[in-house]
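Incident log, support desk, overnight shift.

02:14 A customer reports that sequence design results differ from what the structure should imply. Their input is reproduced verbatim below. On-call engineer (initials T.W.) acknowledged and began investigating.
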């Protein structure tokens, strides 16, 4: 199945390192990140899982639940978790789905047979409180992801959801943002009483709402 931005993400039940879950119920009414990794006891995956554990407080601060997945058994997840804590200095502090029957991988299109028949690729799905897909990305097994970038994207998505602004190239938290084209100048006057800079009628720059400048 191809999941597209704006689609409602599939619901499922699964076994995890923290017990069985119903995915939509587990998400509740907040944001979520579901990510797959190819296989337990592999080097790149070990570094990624340690990094997500390190960044967990940053996901929590944004109201985002994180859950990992691979097609290994739950007992293997528990055994590997010891290695992650030992080698990365951060113990697993979020659930890992044991998708040994590939039910979830197939639902979300995480197995790309021309890359590998047996392992999931490195997929990331960012899901909004409305259960709709806000972002997806796919990396090959050999390239570890940058989870600071996932946090940066979440900051952008959450700003858009709350303030009708978009974020420009290389934007990071605290930088100026862009008033989305669907907001008229008239409406912008109410939303951004501090004013904005019109570079072109379609390119209106404003301080990030919620910061000292905005
Ligand atoms: C890794 O995590 O290092 C890895 C996993 C599967 C294939 C290649 C690398």
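02:41 Re-run completed on a clean worker. Output:
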């Amino acid at each position: 199945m191809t999941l597209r931005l704006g689609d409602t993400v599939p619901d499922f039940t699964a076994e995890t390192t923290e017990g069985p879950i119903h995915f939509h119920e587990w998400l509740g009414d907040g944001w979520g990140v579901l990510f797959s990794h190819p296989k337990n006891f592999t080097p790149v995956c070990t570094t990624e899982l340690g990094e997500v554990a390190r960044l967990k407080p940053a996901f929590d601060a944004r109201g985002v639940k994180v859950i990992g997945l691979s097609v290994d058994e739950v007992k293997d997840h528990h055994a590997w978790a010891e290695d992650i804590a030992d080698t990365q200095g951060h113990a697993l502090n979020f659930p890992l789905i044991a998708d040994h029957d590939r039910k979830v991988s197939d639902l979300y299109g995480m197995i790309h047979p021309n890359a590998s028949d047996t392992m999931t690729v490195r997929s990331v799905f960012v899901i909004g409180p409305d259960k709709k897909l806000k972002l997806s990305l796919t990396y090959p097994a050999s390239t570890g992801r940058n989870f600071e970038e996932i946090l940066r994207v979440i900051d952008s998505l959450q700003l858009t959801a709350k303030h009708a602004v978009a974020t420009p190239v290389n934007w990071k938290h605290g930088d100026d943002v862009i008033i989305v084209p669907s907001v008229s100048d008239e409406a912008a006057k109410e939303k951004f009483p501090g004013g904005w800079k019109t570079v072109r009628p379609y390119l209106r720059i404003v301080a990030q709402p919620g910061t000292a400048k905005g």
